[in-house]
Every structure is written in C-alpha cells, then in structure tokens.
Design brief:
Helix content is 35%, strand content 17%. It has 77 residues and is an alpha+beta fold. The protein has a single domain, classed as CBS-domain (Roll). The protein has a three-stranded mixed β-sheet. It is elongated, with a radius of gyration of 17 Å.
Length: 77
C-alpha cells in the first residue's frame, strides 16, 4: 500500500482472517510446527489458545530452537 494511503486506510482492509492462518496450540510438538513451515503453508505459524493469538513462530525462531536443541543434545552425550 502506498505511504500516502496510510492515513485513510484501516487494518481490516489488509488483514488476513485468523481462520485463514496456519495455527497450532501451545502444547503442539515442534516437529509439527517444522512440518507446517517446511510445507510452505506459511511463513509463520500462529500459536492460538482459546481463540486468542498468544504467540508467533517464524522460520528464524525455529532455526534458533534447532541450534539450541542440537547444542544441548551434543553436551548430553
């Protein structure tokens, strides 16, 4: 959207409904999140609890998590 239209536009005109997003529950397994991101379903996964967005997981977040998990796995050996 061109900058000059910002003052006259509303969020609802550009937003994507929650029902159209890739969502998981807070207790979902990380491999499931990885699968959703790898499938190209979305560039992010929304974490939803009781109909409310409580978090967002991006590919960058997942990369950081994998690095930490691998480091912990190596140190446990």
């Amino acid at each position: 959207m061109p900058r000059e239209q910002w003052p006259t536009r509303r969020v609802r005109e550009r937003m994507v409904p929650l029902g159209d997003q890739v969502v998981v529950a807070p207790h979902a397994r990380m491999d499931g999140v990885l699968g959703k991101l790898e499938d190209g379903e979305a560039g992010r996964v929304l974490v939803v609890q009781d109909g409310e967005v409580v978090g967002i997981i991006t590919p960058t977040d997942l990369t950081r998590w994998l690095r930490r998990w691998r480091a912990l796995d190596r140190s446990a050996r």
